[in-house]
Write a structure and sequence with these properties.
It is globular, with a radius of gyration of 15 Å. A hairpin with a 4-residue loop joins strand 8 and strand 9. With 172 residues, it is an alpha+beta fold. The N and C termini lie far apart (33 Å). The longest helix is centred in the N-terminal third of the chain and has 20 residues. Helix 1 packs across helix 2. It has a single domain, classed as Rieske [2Fe-2S] iron-sulphur domain (Rieske Iron-sulfur Protein), CATH 2.102.10.10. The strands form three sheets. The protein has a four-stranded antiparallel sheet. It binds FE2/S2 (inorganic) cluster. The site of FE2/S2 (inorganic) cluster has 11 residues, from loops.
Length: 172
């Protein structure tokens, strides 16, 4: 328990450190910390279960799974649907590994324009994690293995929705 808390503190510290490095100021640092507070989650042996029932539209949540940041974004009704979305009841979520597919920086979510912006070399991904053509990232944000059960997802397990996405070539 102590270790998990320390791990989480270290991760948040690391994520905020990275934010500072890419030049976002202290005021934004607070906003990032606030929106990056994780949803209730349970971690066990490589699996992380996250309850999405309290997620708010257009508020990015960053979880951690196997040492990687995981982006979870509940889409608003106005946001375009995509076959990469996780559909839970009537809600749609974008969920991906929060590492830029160019050289691995952690992109920041811009709430006003609904894009993930990678400050390292100017990469842009839309709210479905699709990379904007003509910019350095060569591919969309990667979708990690997941399994849906009710309002919960378990990262690290391959559920039917994930297998379907993978077969369609949508996870990368
Ligand atoms: Fe993201 Fe280069 S690492 S654009």
């Amino acid at each position: 328990m102590e270790n998990q808390q320390k791990e989480r503190r270290d991760f948040i510290g690391m994520a905020l450190g990275a934010t500072a490095l890419v030049g976002i100021g202290g005021g934004l640092g607070f906003a990032a910390k606030r929106t990056w507070d994780p949803l209730p989650s349970v971690k066990a042996a490589g699996f992380t279960t996250i309850d999405l029932s309290t997620a708010k539209p257009n508020e990015l949540v960053v979880e951690k799974w196997r040492g990687k940041p995981i982006f979870i974004l509940k889409k608003t009704a106005e946001m375009e649907a995509n076959d990469r979305d996780l559909v839970i009841g009537t809600d749609r979520f974008h969920m991906s590994i929060g590492l830029c597919t160019h050289l691995g920086c952690i992109p920041a979510y811009k709430k006003d324009t609904h894009v993930f912006f990678c400050a390292c070399h100017g990469g842009v991904f839309d709210a479905s994690g699709i990379n904007e053509p003509g910019l350095p990232p060569p591919s969309p944000l990667e979708i990690p293995p997941f399994k849906i059960a009710g309002t919960k997802i378990t990262l690290g397990e391959e559920g039917p929705e994930y297998k379907q996405m993978m077969a369609a070539g949508l996870t990368v």
